[in-house]
Amino acid sequence: MAEDKKERRSLIESVKAPLIFSAALAFVAGFVTLISASGGTDNPARVDLGLIAFGLVFIISLLVVSMLQLASRENPEDLSAGAGVNRNSEELYRAQVAARRAEAARRKAEEAREAEGGEPRYGRAED
User: Fold this and answer.
1) How many Cα atoms within 13 Å fall on the side-chain side of residue 40?
2) How far is the C-alpha of 30 from the C-alpha of 17, rounded, in Å?
């Protein structure tokens, strides 16, 4: 059975880091939209546009950061080691290549022996 190691992951590896980053980025985008959409100090602040910008930037940045975090995560070391059906395919490939080379060398030796005028492979030499 596989052993489940329950290790405490750091803040960067946990889900909190993408949430905090996305919230901070969304807050900045929402605030900039809130201020810039009002059109000046004489007009009221456009809270609706600020909230829309906050929501959109939060969702998009959370998606992008999460995908980047998943793409950069490395596979566990035990996935490429020993035991299991075809788990270590490099050794199987090298064995097949060695067998093919040995067969080719055997055929080449037989062809060279026949070219020297030795007995044919099947039957007898005709007198």
Assistant:
1) 2
2) 20
Secondary structure of residue 2 in the 3-state scheme: coil
Handedness of CA 4, 5, 6, 8 (dihedral sign): negative
Predicted pLDDT of residue 127:
47
User: What size, in residues, is the chain?
Assistant: 127
Instruction: Give strand ranges (E) for the chain.
Output: none
One-letter identity of residue 36 = S
* DSSP assignment letter at 81: S
Distances (CA, A) of 28 to 21, 46, 64: 11, 15, 17
> What's the token pair of residue 87?
């788990």
pLDDT digit string, tens, across residues 15-43? 787 888 999 999 999 999 999 988 877 88
The answer, yes or no, to whether residue 101 has pLDDT greater than 90, is yes
Using CA atoms, how far apart are residues 4 and 78, in angstroms rounded to an integer?
Answer: 13
Please state at what angle helix 47-72 crosses helix 16-36, rounded to 10 degrees: 150
Each residue of 37-68: pLDDT tens digit? Answer: 888 778 888 899 999 999 999 999 999 988 88
